[in-house]
Every structure is written in C-alpha cells, then in structure tokens.
Amino acid sequence: MAAPPLMDELMRRTSVVAATERRVVRLTDPQLFSFPFLYISGKYDFQPFDAEEIETLRRFLSFGGFLLADNALGQLDYGFDRSFRREMARVFPDKELRKLPLNHAALRSYYLIRRIGGRVATTPYIEGIQLGETTPVVYCHNDLAGAWERNAMGNWAYECTPGGQQQRQEAFHLGINLILYAMTGNYKQDLIHVPFIRRRLTQ
C-alpha cells in the first residue's frame, strides 16, 4: 500500500494529523465533497466518466477540491496517460494540462522541490490545470505511489530508477508538498517568502 507510508511521512515531518487508511470513493459518492484531496492512479486505459461524473468532478475541482493523478506505468501517450488527458479535456474543455514552473506554489509549499521523484524518471516536471489563481489538478508521470509503497514485510515494494533512494525521497517530498498545497493554496506566493526562498535556493 502506498497511502500509509506517505501519511506516516506527512505526520512525521509536519504537524498535520492524517488518516492512515485510504478511502475509496466514486465520483457519485454522496460523501465526495467531504474529501478535499482525491488521488487517481493507473497503468492502462480506463472507461470514460459518464455525464454526471464529469459534472460532479468539475464542481468538486471548481469549488476547492484537489485531484492528484499519478501515471503508474510511467509511459506517455499510452494507457492511463491517454485516458486521463481525454477525461480532463471533457471536465475543462477550455483548459489544458500545462507544465508547472519550479516557482509554482505547489513546489514550495513545504519543501523547495528542484527535481520530480517517483519510481521512474519519465519527465522532470509535473503538469497542472489552472483555474484562476489555483491549480486544482496536478498530474505526475513518474509513478509516485510506486516510490511510496512498502510491502507486507515493511520493505520498499519497488526500486526507484535511475536515482535510487534520493529519487524516492524526492517523491515523498512532492507528495507532502501537494497535500499541503491542497490544504493551503497559494499562500506561499506571498512576497514575504521571497527572500527566504532565494536563500534556500542558493544553498
């Protein structure tokens, strides 16, 4: 399971108190809007959402919800990547998934992210959909969960290639950042943080 190790790291490194059990929800679940952070992952093509699911997801993301998509195959233009892009184009026909710059608030909400981790290193960036001043959809191509996951014996389930343990740490850093970004939004865009961030970037 990938969620418990990430939640453990989140609580160990921050003051956030998190549930350690994942909750599987459908877009038609009446409790959907009680969960501000949604995670979707997969390797292969998936069935299109129906009209009700598209409208519900659009409302969820437009009114403060956050969605992290994770390409578990780590391959572009195939399988999950193709299906996810198709569905996002239906949810937000006038928006596009775009590469997020390294100064984006999601990449400095807790750690200053310089490299995108994961089980694989498919791309050195993440993508997002911008709605006004926020980015409620973030998409990673590097299989973050594959880097977070432990097996029943408590050992890492997968190796991270080619960067090893450093690449795994970077995956945890990004996961923690995205959770905090979903909770706090763009507060790190405030100019009061600029001198501190510049000092950190030069270290």
Key terms:
203 residues; alpha/beta; Rossmann fold; five-stranded mixed beta sheet; 5 strands
Describe this structure in words.
A five-stranded mixed sheet has the order 1-2-5-4-3. The longest helix is centred in the C-terminal third of the chain and has 21 residues, at 164-184. By secondary structure, the chain is of the alpha/beta class. The protein contains six helices and five strands. The chain has a single domain (3-201), classed as Rossmann fold (3-Layer(aba) Sandwich), CATH 3.40.50.12140. The radius of gyration is 16 Å and the shape is globular.
Describe the largest sheet: 5 strands, mixed
On the 0 to 100 scale, the average pLDDT is 89
The CA-CA distance between the termini, in Å, is 35 Å
| Proportion of residues in β-strands | 5-15%
User: What is the CA-atom radius of gyration, in angstroms?
Assistant: 16 Å
Count of helical segments?
A: 6
Outline type: globular
The SSE order reads HEHEHEEEHHH
Stretches with pLDDT under 50, minimum 5 residues: 188-198
Number of strands: 5
Order of strands, widest sheet: 1-2-5-4-3
What is the second-level CATH architecture?
A: 3-Layer(aba) Sandwich
Give the proportion of residues in helices: 25-40%
The name of the CATH superfamily reads Domain of unknown function DUF4159
CATH level 1 name: Alpha Beta
Structural class category: alpha/beta
- Domain module count: 1
CATH topology: Rossmann fold
